[in-house]
Design brief:
Helix content: 55-70%
Shape: rod-shaped
InterPro entries: HATPase_C_sf (IPR036890), HATPase_dom (IPR003594), His_kinase_dom (IPR005467), HisK_dim/P_dom (IPR003661), HisK_dim/P_sf (IPR036097), MFS_trans_sf (IPR036259), Sensor_HK_Regulatory (IPR050736), Sig_transdc_His_kin-like_C (IPR004358)
Pfam families: HATPase_c (PF02518), HisKA (PF00512)
GO molecular function: ATP binding
Largest sheet: 5 strands, mixed
Protein name: histidine kinase
Enzyme class: transferase
Amino acid sequence: MSLALSPFDEHSRADKTRTPQRGRPGSTNGIRSLRETMKRRGRRTSFIERELLVLHAAQIRASSILLPAPVILTGFGLSIFTGAFVAGLWTGLTLLAYLVLVILGRRANAAQEGPAGRTGRIGATTFLVGHVLIGLCWSYLPYLECHDCAPMRFEIFQFSVLVLVIAMTAMVSSTLRLVVPITFAPLLIGLLSQLVNHSDPMTAAMDLVLVGAVPFFAFVAEALRRGAVAQVRHQAEKDELIGELERSRVLSDEARRRAEDANRAKSQFLATMSHELRTPLNAILGFSEVMQNEIFGPIGSPNYKEYLDDIHSSGRHLLGVINEILDLSRVEAGQYKLNEEAVDLSRVAAECITTVRLRAENKRIALHLQCEDNLPMLWGDERALRQIVLNLLSNAVKFTAPSGEIVISVGWTAGGGQYVGVSDNGAGIPQDEIPTVLASFGQGTNAIKSAEQGTGLGLPIVQALVKLHDGQFELTSREGKGTNVIAVFPHSRVLEVMPAFEDA
């Protein structure tokens, strides 16, 4: 047997060395350490700022069609109040400033989608410069005058436009830090300078409202920005957790595959060793039988014959253990092939009772067979079915007290299949030990105390053979009340006889 690693193991080890270990995902300590990592500043903070900058660029691109609308409408209104030349010049410069901002957003998007996955050299300062250019254009609006307009008409127009623009900037560019106060700082300076010289209280009141609107919408923009920061942080944390879960899933799959490979190697090794052991063991049994029967002459001392009886019985017991290990290892390795044919399950049960009857009579145990009438044939492996019934009966005889009773029943299931069940009134199995006795080499406390200890492979072999027949195995037991085991075979394996066609 080679000790070299298989190609799968080599790849698994290579992958495992490349996979970072950050604690056990799914455990409390692993998630707590991950959350502490998420709360650290430095690289995480720069990542959040970069993501906010990407969101800002995306918002600029998304609103690039709507941004010129207020400028064009304002220019149309200015053409009525101040004339076409001033309105056209202001509109062109403002649209040019917005165009610069949109170009910056598109360049940031192109850089972010590039191989580097970053926004390139376009940072927050560059976007703020673009917003300052736009703010300068809007800050010129309060300096315009309309001498031929009725009182307060042009001032109300200016007030409405500026409030709308401040609100729009706060909503569209909220992910950029301090965008509202920096953009409209020139406007604040102009309004404060005019506020001192205004004699009209209505105009002064509107300028004061505009001055107050800048910090108000700056607060609104900061609240929206904090919400975006929380969303980015939660998304990053979720991505980290998903990555950890994905890495743990990969490691778990690799560990499961390695365990399956090891289990198959173990089963193959047991099957090979069982074959190798059976050959000399059969020779031991054969030679011991020759010496028992004194074929080549009498044995000098009678003690030798007793020793031969012990050697022969021990050899048969060892052969039975090896056969059980061989059967289980072949099933686990997927090398057990069913030789299927039509089998009478009632006949198999009756023959198995004949096999164990002598052992049962030695313990004064009563055996009863209950079969339903006219059961059709079952499609299966007769040797495997016989082994199923024999293992169940042997366990029942082994763990039933003298003068006990065992009932084996064969019949229909509610779904149209067939079943074979064995029930006894023996010592029973505690509920917490049922998984143990159903596992390979598992033995309960009653088996350990019994003088007839086995290998603990009888029930696992029964389960494996029943599963090969697409059936189900059930075991119910109560301590001191006995045990009931049943093997159920599906309706698809029942060979129902079709009625003969009558001639017309």
